[in-house]
């Protein structure tokens, strides 16, 4: 029987239970810390006002529609009643054949959760590639629940650090809020820009990406050389 609950799994040794109890205490501490950080994030003061009402290119509501292209303003990404907007910028350069496999893996998961997300907040996905290329890739991946936008004709990517002269296209999660004073930036996944500690990969989106968390449950862990692929 454990120190923190009354469950005991078949055949487990006393050594296993002691080690598992020690780990369980750390997991409780981690959950507490995650909730503390989330609370601090919610208390952030308003960020800077939206630099401009960017105009994106967007396809039709039906992903199978390969011809419709419309102009969508940033301000039009806010549905009535939802005052927060999450934008994921994924690495898909205008001259690339395919987007980043890691971004693709993230969006595979977000697509499945999108109906739950948009019941509470607004959600959009942006890339620099032409909208036709983005939608073609989305059809191949089955991304039928994501609002897909091209920033190919505006400066959104460079303004909100999803593109740089040194690195080209970069992944980014940005959050914006809207109120009576206008639209303001609220949050960016800035772990990507901070120096990682020794041996760390500068992953900044782990909390919205179940892949690595699943690997973390296993003896093999994340490994050092494995990364998602576009196909297997």
What does this structure look like?
The chain has 232 residues and is of the alpha+beta class. It has a domain at 55-190: 3-Layer(aba) Sandwich (Glutaredoxin). The protein is 29% helix and 19% strand. The strands form two sheets. It has a seven-stranded mixed beta sheet with strand order 2-1-5-4-3-8-9. A two-stranded antiparallel ribbon has the order 6-7. The longest helix has 29 residues, at 14-42.
Rg measurement, Å = 21 Å
Pattern of helices and strands: HEEEHEHEHEEEEH
**Content of β-strand:** 15-25%
Please give the number of β-strands.
9
Provide the helix percentage: 25-40%
**Spatial order of the strands in the main sheet?**
2-1-5-4-3-8-9
On the 0-100 scale, what is the average pLDDT?
Answer: 94
The 3D shape can be described as: globular
Please report the distance between the alpha carbons of the first and last residues.
42 Å
CATH class of the domain at 55-190: Alpha Beta
**Which stretches are poorly predicted, pLDDT < 50 over at least 5 residues?**
none
